[in-house]
Amino acid sequence: MERYDRQLRIHGFGLEGQERLKRASVMVVGLGGLGCLASMYLAAAGVGRLVVIDGDFVELSNLNRQLLHWSGDVGKPKTSSAAVKLRQLNPEVEVVEVASRLDEGVARSLVEDVDVVVDGLDNYRSRLIINKACVESLKPYIYAGVRGFEGRVMTIVPGRGPCLRCLIPLDPPEPQDLPVLGATPGVAASLEAMEAVKLIVGLGEPLIGRLLVFNGLSMSFQTIKVERRPGCSVCSGLSLK
């Protein structure tokens, strides 16, 4: 009660909302700038089971934005580095480490075992794999991407709106070493965590069919309507709920 006191006071949240969080299982795919911050907020909120997946090791260049990894963690697996801090942040949360590269088989098996998937990735190949697995398993997927001072977030709920392939019909180029200010993924990850909590608790209006885009240089936010594509290779076979 004391740990979650301030969110319990939110109208419509209360003990019932906290119990829903406690029963929920969320997977954060990737423990970079997005995944680190999203994981922290989800653990702090009291999600019962947090599955974190990443096959990489901590590098010095990660530390300007990946706040679960500290200087002494350089060279360690990202999953173990992150899990230590997440368990300290909230010992009541079960943290499951998956130190693995992502492929379609791994994605499908992991997605089927959780309630919500949160994007902590840095490439579209992996995002599209997760998007397909979520659509096939009918699991919500919260997409985010960042570059420089800019970020974007969209919530994908299969059968209720467009999927990531509707938004990105063609495979985009994969630039190496994207420029990014550390605070930019912090903003996007906070929005991702908020969307995940809303979906689990049943509050508000998620970003279904709406791409939120923010520009930190002008400090502007806008939402762009995204429609389902009739010929989408991933989700066109689903009927709208």
Notable features of this structure?
Rossmann fold, eight-stranded mixed beta sheet, 241 residues, alpha/beta, 8 strands, 8 helices
CATH architecture annotation name: 3-Layer(aba) Sandwich
Q: Strand arrangement, largest sheet?
A: 3-2-1-4-5-6-7-8
Radius of gyration: 17 Å
Q: What number is the mean pLDDT?
A: 96
Order of helices and strands: HHEHEHEHEHEEHHEE
Structural class by SSE content: alpha/beta
End-to-end CA span: 36 Å
| DSSP helical segment count | 8
Strand content: 15-25%
Main beta sheet strand tally, sense and closure = 8 strands, mixed
* Total domain count: 1
- Overall spatial form: globular
State the total count of DSSP E strands. Answer: 8
Indicate the CATH topology: Rossmann fold
CATH superfamily: NAD(P)-binding Rossmann-like Domain
What low-confidence regions span 5 or more consecutive residues with pLDDT below 50?
Answer: none
What's the helical proportion of residues? 25-40%
CATH class: Alpha Beta
